[in-house]
Amino acid sequence: MSGPAGIPSAGVSEEELAHIAHLARLALDPREVPRLREELARILALVDEMNAIDTADLSPMAHPVETAQRLRRDEVGEEDRRELLQQGAPEVEDGLYLVPRVVD
After folding, report:
1. Is there a domain that residue 47 lies in?
2. Which domain range does residue 47 map to?
């Protein structure tokens, strides 16, 4: 069975689509089901196509473009204002804010 443009629409049943939507916590409009089945079938066809590619001789890479990372100097950009900022806190001890216990 094929849908528009020869895309197989039988790849995902309406029940499977409803289950996927439930897992993703998505509300499905019944009018959208045919279009969503077609889109999901296209995605699955693309995954099948990619899985068919022989990648045995390829090494993994972190980024598709070989570039050097531009680095900046590791410098302090602002002064330590902890004491000034903690002046408005209700309670401070050893440079830490003390907060009321919430969980017993």
Report:
1. yes
2. 4-51
The structure tokens listed for 87 are 């002046």
Cα separation, 59 vs 68, in Å, equals 19
pTM above 0.85, yes or no: no
User: What tens-digit pLDDT sequence spans the chain (104 residues)?
Assistant: 444 444 444 578 999 999 999 999 999 999 999 999 999 999 999 999 999 999 999 888 888 888 888 898 999 889 999 999 999 999 999 999 999 889 87
Q: What share of the chain is helix, strand, coil (3-state, %, to 5)?
A: 40, 5, 55
Number of domains in the chain: 1
Residue 32 belongs to a domain? yes
Provide the β-strand partners of residue 2.
8
Distance from first CA to last CA of the chain, Å, rounded? 61
Specify if 77 maps to a domain.
no
- Whether residue 35 lies inside any domain: the answer is yes
